[in-house]
């Protein structure tokens, strides 16, 4: 079946093709040495082979082993091997045995979505380990996991997880259908999956949660939502979701209720500040200085006196710098990352003002915008809000406060027009059952 | 038109709409106070107090510029003033409009000030006052404590700063309203300047845009209580020849209009809380009932004096006429009726003082 020169299998140096002989009969085994665990092969194949006195005995041993299966379909042999199987050829018949090398199963600290006193570990990059983490926290036989492979070339392993009794069958069916319809060669991450299963190309606000927290997975599973674990990334995709979900941190469950309410309010105020403050700065300084107190109007005028350029230039300049700083500190290697913040901080802090490029009030505006953006617990949502402020600045430059208000109304319309798997998106709660017994979000 | 073209075209058209509203804050001149006087060659002399912004503000360092212009109308004067400055006037923070005393004494105010009533940016925020000896000198006064130009003149009116029982205040729109309302007359505070400070402790009462009456400081204090501003005020009374000052606060103040055919009456019921503030003799062991009676008597006399004076001068800033019209069914004729009744009205004032304490001495 294999032609020595043309078969791509043989061109890979990590492909192993061995013939074993114990004196009584022979077997041939094929596997990728990088994908398979040699210890396992030795224990499950070589050792029993040595002790077997006839091919029949060995066949029995093989089939009684944990995952040994006789395969009749010889066309997909290479695919089986690429999944970490070892193929054993015994007297013309093919058997496969799962001998995967354990992946990166090390548990890492949650890094993008931290809580103060909640669980500290994140999900694993290995899908099976992630599934293990979720199952341990939700030991129910109703928790169904459907394995599937995403991407025509990458065949990335993925698990669709849901609670059979709680998940909405219509949404589940739709989710499954969309996953099956994914038309991509390689799939690496859940964000990509989200893009691939969303109908529209122009995506702005996330309609599915991406999280790395096992506790968030479990909470959402118990609320009847569907979780998609993708191998190779510690993040999972949760759907459906409403706007409020992106503004709730896992801390909200265990903190005293009044503190939670205050924190949620803080986040909403943060959103308002991060979206509107630069636009309002332009509107107030260039169109409607009458809305602020005369005392502040005069000191604002005083601080702007040295700035020769119009306000929108000032705002765009500062916001560009801060966005560049945020982006740079994300991309830079950790060792030189502090350089960017130091240099950038110096520029943003003092020098720009002393150079007469921006007013001192603008520096406060910039830092308020940057800081309050980080109040949003789910990262993608905070990115979405980083984008809104620019159209608002344009509107403020053209129409003043009226433009800002109109722009905000337009954003609300847009949000209200969104949906997540047919459910209204722009609302606070779907009406999930109260499962944590605490979070205001899950009381009806 | 195909959708592909029409949407960007519409957006482009929208971009052309804003016009020239865009003007940076540092290119605007904030007019913080406006003075209106009699001109020498023209009917109006308008003065602007223009605040000069500076990044650092210190008490007494308020920087400003005062410019004046005479003109045949206020609008005309303002147009002419525009050519005297380098930045665009911004009336968004014009909090005080000072009218010169001689202007207020000789001219009717309503039509003359029409320009102010029509400005959307001034009409809802500005306070009106009469300036003594003239508006320009009020505007030019520079108190030592002033951090930002115009603040010293503005803060007494906005309730952010001092709360004096002698300061009455009238918004521009309130003046307009009282001018057009039958049965409730307008009043304005009188501001006089003393080299480095202002004195605002009197009020002038207007009827049909003409100044009719000027109240003394003492009367203004009582008048302010009748306006229900609820500021603490002082009642001086004597008991057994010893003077006692009472710190008083009005708890409730209401009146009733009794209109019997030939004896119209207005009955006031006032209750006040009082506390002795300084005394020439200890009062703690005195009968508190007696103290209350003394205060009641004193306050009643002062109130009656004020009310009678208002009636005798034919002015009605407390809105008796409005109450009369509101409780009758005769339409327009009610007001004519009231004008006949008002001079014959007798006032009855019933004061109920409650003595809350003698102060604490440790």
Automatic annotation (TrEMBL), chain A:
GO terms for biological process: spore germination. The chain crosses the membrane at residues 268-287, 307-326, 335-352, 358-380, 392-416. Signal peptide: none annotated. Keywords: Membrane, Transmembrane, Transmembrane helix. GO terms for cellular component: membrane. It comes from the Bacteria. Pfam families: GerA. Belongs to the GerABKA family. This is Spore germination protein. It comes from Cohnella thailandensis.
From TrEMBL, chain B:
It is a lipid-anchor. PANTHER family: SPORE GERMINATION PROTEIN B3. Residues 202-359 form the Spore germination GerAC-like C-terminal domain. Belongs to the GerABKC lipoprotein family. This is Ger(X)C family spore germination protein. Pfam families: Spore_GerAC (PF05504), Spore_GerAC_N (PF25198). Residues 23-192 form the Spore germination protein N-terminal domain. GO terms for cellular component: membrane. InterPro entries: GerAC_N, Spore_GerAC-like, Spore_GerAC-like_C, Spore_GerAC_C_sf. GO terms for biological process: spore germination. It is found in: Membrane. Keywords: Germination, Lipoprotein, Membrane, Palmitate, Signal.
